[in-house]
Design brief:
It contains 6 helices and 7 strands; from the N terminus they run ββαβαβαααβββα. It is of the alpha/beta class and 218 residues long.
Amino acid sequence: MVANNAQGAGEVLGTDGSTAVAGPAVPDGASMPEDRSLSDAAIADRARQGTLAADVLSALGSRGESVAVAESLTGGLLAAALTDAPGASRCFRGSITAYATDLKAGLLGVAEALLAERGAVDAEVAAQMAQGVRRVMGTDWGAATTGVAGPEPQDGQPVGTVHIAVAGPGGAAVTAELKLAGSRTEIRARSVTSTLELLQSELIENARAQDTEQGGQI
């Protein structure tokens, strides 16, 4: 999925998530400060995240289940999206931000040989992160993000390459690879949204499987 890279010149992000005009655009030839504004795409992702998080937590709560997350490139944004929703404490156990590669092994149990061979930006790494945080936190569900938000490539992977994963009650993990465009902020925001979408999809699929199993036992 490709994110829209349009953003307003001279906008800055406030501490409450709002934007305000900071003055005229930087003239040609002048140095450009780090852009902290939110584009329309990032704002849309944030709104979508609120809806998804509420739906995920509602589904978990109705089933008496829990979730934890492991994050790399998103740096805590996935946990923040879930805990922004009212009633998160009923289902959300916690998160591990394993930004450094060695912490993915030390805290989450990702195989050191896998990290040495493929680097941190890999589907199997994401899967083991999701399984690891589920195990460490003692939850029914685990979700994970790893990838390259930019501005430079990492482990031979271009900017915008992201792997996300969800591990369910059975322990198996489902992964998805994203190829994203846009700013660092947009890539991270879209990664969070996509992970919540994957988690929601797996919750729905798991519920259908349980209904089918129960129906076959009648």
